[in-house]
């Protein structure tokens, strides 16, 4: 059953759909050359889903984009979370790594595209590298903050009980920092989807970004909107799945709040 917030959200979406119909179809205040009508959107969705567009059907494009995001996001977790935990735990590691990280952090992910192409060519590896960097920074920052925000008495109590260093990290530090880590992962996932489209605009032969690029060249507003909506839905779905994983992993935290 939907709660009050769910019904409010559905009402907002319904109002936007009605406004879309009124501005484009009912009154023509917004021309089809600038923004597609609902009928044009559905026609474009049917075309790419059944007949195909930009060299493939929608499912093929969506699965390829999803694969790139999943791979870049996974590499960001594997590299960013341990690095953030290490910097948060060790003052020496922070002193050695943080100056370099502070220089790299402000660089926009899209600025890495030329270098990624130079290193890895026009294939998927270059796109994964750009997506990885966009997701890497939030995961490091929030993992670092999660360790630094742990109550010191908790760590001191574990040490007084003679907890070995390995168990201290895996059973005290990592669980206590997990809420902040998952916050970073949500930001990382959103950044990965935001970067995907730009990464696929260069040298791609398949993917949602490629659909958007071809639709822009064909002056096809309906297909552009289809690509945008698909990216939004995929981003929402993956964020929802990450939320489920967070609830399972942090069930103890949810129970404590309740």
Would you mind describing this structure in some detail?
The chain is mainly alpha-helical. It has a single domain, classed as MetI-like fold. Helix content is 80%, strand content 0%. It has 11 helices and no strands. Helix 8 packs parallel to helix 9 (208-217).
Quick structural summary:
The protein contains eleven helices and no strands.
Task: Describe the SSE topology.
Blueprint: H1 4-26, H2 38-51, H3 58-89, H4 91-104, H5 113-120, H6 124-148, H7 152-160, H8 165-200, H9 208-217, H10 221-249, H11 251-257
Low-confidence stretches: 254-258
The named CATH superfamily:
MetI-like
The number of helical elements comes to: 11
- Shape category: globular
Strand content: under 5%
Q: Provide the CATH top-level class.
A: Mainly Alpha
Compute the gyration radius: what is it?
Answer: 22 Å
Query: On the 0-100 scale, what is the average pLDDT?
Result: 86
Helix content: over 70%
Q: Which architecture does the CATH hierarchy give at level 2?
A: Orthogonal Bundle
Largest sheet: none
The CATH topology corresponds to MetI-like fold
Name the structural class: mainly alpha
Overall number of domains: 1
């Amino acid at each position: 059953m939907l709660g009050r917030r769910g019904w409010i959200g559905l009402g907002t979406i319904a109002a936007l759909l009605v406004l879309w119909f009124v501005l484009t179809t009912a009154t023509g205040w917004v021309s089809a050359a600038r923004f597609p009508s609902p009928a044009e959107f559905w026609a474009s969705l049917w075309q790419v889903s059944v007949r195909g567009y930009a060299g493939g059907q929608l499912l093929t494009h969506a699965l390829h984009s999803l694969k790139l995001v999943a791979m870049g996001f996974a590499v960001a977790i594997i590299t960013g979370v341990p690095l953030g935990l290490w910097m948060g735990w060790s003052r020496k590691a922070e002193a050695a790594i943080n100056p370099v990280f502070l220089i790299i952090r402000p660089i926009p992910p899209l600025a890495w595209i030329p270098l990624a192409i130079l290193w890895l060519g026009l294939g998927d590896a270059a796109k994964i590298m750009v997506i990885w960097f966009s997701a890497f920074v939030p995961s490091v920052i929030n993992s670092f903050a999660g360790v630094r925000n742990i109550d010191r008495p908790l760590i001191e109590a574990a040490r007084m009980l003679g907890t070995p260093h390995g168990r201290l990290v895996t059973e005290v530090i990592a669980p206590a920092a997990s809420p902040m880590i998952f916050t970073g992962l949500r930001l990382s996932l959103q950044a990965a989807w935001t970067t995907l489209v730009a990464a696929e605009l260069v040298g791609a032969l398949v993917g949602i970004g490629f659909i958007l690029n071809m639709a822009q060249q064909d002056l096809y507003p309906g297909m552009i909107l289809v690509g945008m909506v698909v990216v939004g839905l995929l981003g929402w779905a993956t964020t929802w799945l990450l939320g489920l994983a967070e609830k399972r992993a942090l069930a103890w935290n949810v129970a404590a709040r309740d």
